[in-house]
């Protein structure tokens, strides 16, 4: 199991504003090894209860929010993760389990029994939550991500664009899952993540968008797509 505890802030900004910001950021940060200069694709399958409890926690502005999702990085299916993300204000704890494609296919179809065979506490925790909470697949969300890293405080900056979604949850691993744009094509989301503090030089660089910090859930946006 991989476990990450961080601070997280999100800023919806235009692609043009990000390009301007990017020129200054690249004086200090460097591309994530998996991102390079062109970025990579992220696809997630979100699960929720029959009554959409996790969705309404976000919509109601509750301090405590939780999300359960499968995630991989098309076109590769070598690294499939089941993630459990818990957020309290700007504090985020994300735990993940790497899955085989066979197990991921069963879980994506609503069969959570493969989790019982995994020798990890998180797997049993998620199996219990998924079953007792009446969770089932709700939406696919995909986007293009540019990622940058800065060594102090394990800082990571990402910019997500071309955010799209589909309710055809059975097509999660398909080459074409029938995605429809969620956001305007000229908009994206800048995410700033760090362990303890954001260094001054980066804080000053992004302060022009600091006033725009807000909850920005791609999952919540996807649920209102149709």
Summarize it.
With 226 residues, the protein is of the alpha+beta class. It has helices at residues 15-25, 53-59, 101-108, 121-132, 200-210, 218-223, and strands at residues 2-14, 30-31, 40-48, 64-73, 76-88, 91-99, 136-150, 155-166, 180-181, 187-194.
- Output the helix-strand order: EHEEHEEEHHEEEEHH
Largest sheet: 8 strands, antiparallel, barrel
User: What share of residues are in beta strands?
Assistant: 35-45%
Which CATH class applies here?
Alpha Beta
Low-confidence residue ranges: none
Based on Cα principal axes, name the global outline.
globular
Number of beta-strand segments: 10
Structure write-up:
This protein is an alpha+beta fold. It contains six helices and ten strands. The chain has an eight-stranded antiparallel barrel with strand order 1-6-5-4-3-7-8-10, surrounded by four helices. Strand 5 and strand 6 form a beta hairpin. It is globular and about 50 Å long. It starts with a strand and ends with a helix. 31% of the residues are buried.
Produce the secondary structure layout.
Elements: E1 2-14, H1 15-25, E2 30-31, E3 40-48, H2 53-59, E4 64-73, E5 76-88, E6 91-99, H3 101-108, H4 121-132, E7 136-150, E8 155-166, E9 180-181, E10 187-194, H5 200-210, H6 218-223
